[in-house]
């Protein structure tokens, strides 16, 4: 099957949606499908290179404020034109558009690209501008779609809000996790500890603290991610813990002010994908403190796959991702965050149970299972088209 995956977010900039597109494309290619990705790219040759997947560049991105975040998108006529050119060159049997109302490649593909079109909604929440776009274009887009999927119930609600009453059933397909990338990081760390090569030294061990538990966060430093809340709560976290806060972004100054000179905290900035996996594998407790705007927290699944116990806020997207395998706390409550972290740090039985449940949950959402779910959707729409 020839499948084109269309992303509106810059391929060279790390992010949840483009990470999912890359993971799905790779899993489909491994299964023997012919796969292309169409996405903007501000860096020549930037972003992941996936074996067996063709990459078509659709314009250069701009940083635009979207849904409480700064998104690298390409809302330009050039991006739309290059998207159409790429789709003609690849000649897909199915076009899978991620965020079909996002200006640039997704909207162009949804409105003008070859059919059938499968749309996936990642976003949770529709602001006034997004609803206005839905009012203007939702009906046109909806009529072009052979199937609509969402990564969570929150994202499905958003899809219905912007595409209108005539929307067909929304198929919920969760985000997927690349199990091997994260579980192998844990295995390498355990092997070092078994052979006596740990102690915080070496590539796989430098985040680990042999003298106490490690509490970790990975994410963009934005208000909705809750990183400043976490920084403010660190002082109330068990004094034995070392805290690793990975990332960068507009809230970085606020994070540093909130942390003060706490010597237990490590702020390495933004790190590569392999190091993200190493941080998660080194963590005894992984904290996901987002306050809003997360339709499905794949970072939770990644931490679970890496063998960390997860403490997460109780926003709907995180409840959906965790599937009962995390210790949740009231979103936006710093005291509740610290109390939940301390409970998991101090209770070995609870922590072990969370790790075991998390491992099972991550396996349920493996990218291989998710790719098969999408293949079922593709086969369904091709059957409708060919009937």
Q: Would you summarize the structure shown here?
A:
By secondary structure, the protein is an alpha/beta fold. Helix content is 44%, strand content 19%. It has two domains: 2-176 and 367-386, Glycogen Phosphorylase B (Rossmann fold, 3-Layer(aba) Sandwich), CATH 3.40.50.2000; 179-364, Rossmann fold.
Explain the overall architecture.
With 387 residues, the chain is of the alpha/beta class. It folds into 2 domains: 2-176 and 367-386, Rossmann fold, CATH 3.40.50; 179-364, 3-Layer(aba) Sandwich (Rossmann fold). 44% of the residues lie in helices and 19% in strands. The chain contains 14 helices and 15 strands. It has helices spanning 16-30, 77-90, 105-112, 128-144, 153-163, 179-194, 227-233, 252-259, 273-282, 298-305, 316-322, 334-346, 348-364, 367-386; strands spanning 2-6, 34-39, 53-57, 62-66, 69-73, 94-98, 117-121, 145-150, 170-172, 214-218, 242-246, 265-269, 285-288, 309-313, 327-329. Helix 7 runs parallel beside helix 8 (252-259) and helix 7 packs across helix 12.
What's the arrangement of strands in the largest beta sheet?
3-2-1-6-7-8-9
Q: Give the radius of gyration.
A: 21 Å
User: How does the overall form come out from the CA principal axes?
Assistant: globular
Helix percentage range? 40-55%
Class per helix and strand makeup: alpha/beta
CATH topology-level fold name of the largest domain: Rossmann fold
Order of helices and strands: EHEEEEHEHEHEHEHEHEHEHEHEHEHHH
Number of self-contained structural domains: 2
Name the CATH architecture of the largest domain.
Answer: 3-Layer(aba) Sandwich
């Amino acid at each position: 099957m020839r499948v084109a995956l269309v992303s509106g977010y810059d391929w060279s900039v790390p992010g949840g949606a483009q990470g999912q597109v890359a993971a799905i494309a790779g899993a489909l290619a491994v299964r023997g499908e012919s796969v292309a990705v169409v996405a903007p790219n501000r860096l020549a040759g930037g972003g992941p290179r996936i074996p067996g997947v063709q990459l078509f560049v659709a314009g250069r991105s701009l940083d635009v404020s979207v849904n409480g975040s700064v998104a690298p998108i390409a809302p330009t006529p050039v991006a739309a034109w290059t998207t159409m050119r790429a789709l003609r060159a690849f000649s897909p049997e199915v076009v899978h558009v991620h965020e079909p109302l996002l200006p640039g490649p997704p909207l162009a593909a949804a409105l003008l690209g070859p059919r059938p079109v499968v749309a996936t909604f990642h976003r949770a929440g529709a602001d006034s501008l997004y609803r206005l776009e839905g009012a203007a274009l939702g009906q046109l887009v909806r009529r072009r779609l052979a199937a609509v999927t969402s990564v969570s119930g929150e994202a499905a609600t958003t899809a219905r809000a912007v595409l209108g009453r005539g929307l067909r059933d929304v198929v919920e397909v969760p985000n997927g996790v690349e199990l091997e990338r994260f579980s192998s990081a844990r295995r390498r760390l355990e092997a070092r500890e078994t052979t006596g090569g740990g102690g915080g030294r070496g590539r796989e061990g430098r985040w680990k603290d042999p003298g106490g538990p490690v509490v970790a966060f990975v994410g963009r430093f934005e208000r909705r991610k809750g990183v400043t809340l976490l920084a403010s709560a660190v002082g109330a976290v068990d004094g034995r813990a070392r805290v690793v806060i990975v990332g960068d972004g507009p809230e970085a100054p606020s994070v540093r002010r909130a942390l003060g000179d706490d010597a237990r905290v490590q702020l390495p900035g933004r790190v590569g994908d392999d190091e993200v996996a190493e941080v998660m594998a080194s963590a005894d407790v992984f904290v996901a403190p987002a306050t809003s705007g997360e339709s499905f927290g794949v970072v939770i699944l990644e931490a679970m796959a890496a063998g960390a116990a997860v403490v997460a806020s109780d926003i709907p997207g995180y409840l959906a991702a965790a599937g009962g395998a995390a210790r949740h706390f009231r979103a936006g409550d710093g005291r509740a965050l610290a109390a939940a972290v301390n409970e998991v740090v101090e209770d070995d039985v609870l922590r072990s149970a969370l790790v075991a449940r998390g491992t099972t949950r991550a396996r349920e959402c493996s990218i291989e299972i998710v790719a098969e779910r999408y293949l079922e959707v593709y086969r369904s729409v091709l059957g409708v088209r060919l009937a």
